[in-house]
Write a structure and sequence with these properties.
By secondary structure, this protein is an alpha+beta fold. The chain has a single domain, classed as 2,3-Dihydroxybiphenyl 1,2-Dioxygenase, domain 1. Helices cover 20% and strands 40% of the residues. It is built from four helices and 16 strands. β6 and β7 form a beta hairpin.
C-alpha cells in the first residue's frame, strides 16, 4: 500500500424512490440524458459530458416536504438550461410540481417529491447540464472541506450561503441550513433521500479510503468485502465501493 492515495473518486448521486422507472423516465424526458443501466432496482442516466445520476428503489419512500426541516430534501440537483421558464412548464407537464421562482432559477419537485432547480444559462443545449449536486449541511464550509479532502476536489467557492468543490468536470455544492435535520439511516421515518457513490481501486484502497474518511469525521455504518457505507459529519450516508 506504499504510496497509495487515500482519496476516492466521485461516481454519482443516487436518489431514493419507490417508482424508479417513472422517475428515471421523467428525468430522461426532461434533460435528454440517456439510460445506461437498469438492473436490480437501480437505474442510471448519463449526460453527454459523462456525469451520471441514479435512482435507487426503496419499498417505502417518504418524500421530502420542502422547504421545511420536518422531512428535509437533504440533496437536490442544480440543472442548467437555456430557457428555464419553458423547461419548467415542460417539467410540470411531465409530472413535476412548481415550488418557487427566482430571478434566474425555478425550484420544482420531481414526481417522487425531490426538489430540483432549473437555472438559466444562455447557450446550454439541447441537453440540460448538471451544474452540481447540492447537499444540505449545518456547516457548509466544514462539509465541503470533508468531501474535498476525501475526493481530492478543489474548493471553488466558500461563502455565507454555502460552498462548492469541483474536479474533473464534477461539482458538489453544500447549502447552509440553519435548522438542519440529519437523516437517520436506515430509519425510513428520517430518510436519506439520496446518497453519493464513491469508487475506489481495490480492496486495499477501499480500506485506506474508509480509514481516511473516519479520520476526517465520518462514521462507519455497514460494510462488506467490496463496499463500506459511512455517514459524513452531517449524517448523510455515502458508499465506498470497488467497481
Amino acid at each position: 500500500m506504499s504510496g497509495m492515495t487515500a482519496t476516492g473518486r466521485l461516481e454519482l448521486v443516487a436518489f431514493d424512490a419507490t417508482d424508479i422507472e417513472g422517475l428515471a423516465s421523467f428525468y430522461a424526458d426532461l434533460t435528454g440524458w440517456e439510460t445506461v443501466r437498469n438492473v436490480g432496482g437501480w437505474i442510471t442516466l448519463r449526460a453527454d459530458d459523462g456525469q451520471e445520476v441514479a435512482f435507487q428503489q426503496v419499498a417505502e419512500h417518504n418524500p421530502p416536504r420542502w422547504p421545511g426541516q420536518e422531512r428535509p430534501q437533504q440533496f437536490h440537483l442544480d440543472l442548467l438550461v437555456d430557457g428555464h421558464e419553458e423547461a419548467a412548464q415542460r417539467a410540470v407537464a411531465l409530472g413535476a410540481t412548481r415550488l418557487a421562482d427566482g430571478a434566474t432559477w425555478i425550484t420544482l419537485a420531481d414526481p417522487a417529491g425531490h426538489p430540483f432547480d432549473l437555472c438559466q444559462r444562455d447557450g446550454v443545449g439541447p441537453q440540460m447540464q448538471l451544474f452540481a449536486v447540492t447537499i444540505d449541511a449545518p456547516d457548509a464550509s466544514a462539509l465541503a472541506r470533508f468531501y474535498g479532502s476525501l475526493l481530492g476536489m478543489e474548493l471553488a467557492y466558500d461563502g455565507p450561503e454555502g460552498a462548492l468543490i469541483s474536479e474533473g468536470g464534477k461539482s458538489l455544492m453544500f447549502q447552509q441550513v440553519s435548522d438542519y435535520t440529519p437523516p437517520r439511516w436506515p430509519d425510513p421515518a428520517h430518510p436519506q433521500q439520496a446518497h453519493l457513490d464513491i469508487i475506489v481501486d481495490d480492496a486495499d484502497h477501499l480500506k485506506a479510503v474508509g480509514a481516511r474518511a473516519e479520520e476526517l469525521g465520518a462514521t462507519r455504518l455497514a460494510g462488506g468485502t467490496s463496499w463500506i457505507t459511512l455517514a459524513d459529519p452531517a449524517g448523510h450516508p455515502f458508499d465506498l465501493s470497488v467497481p
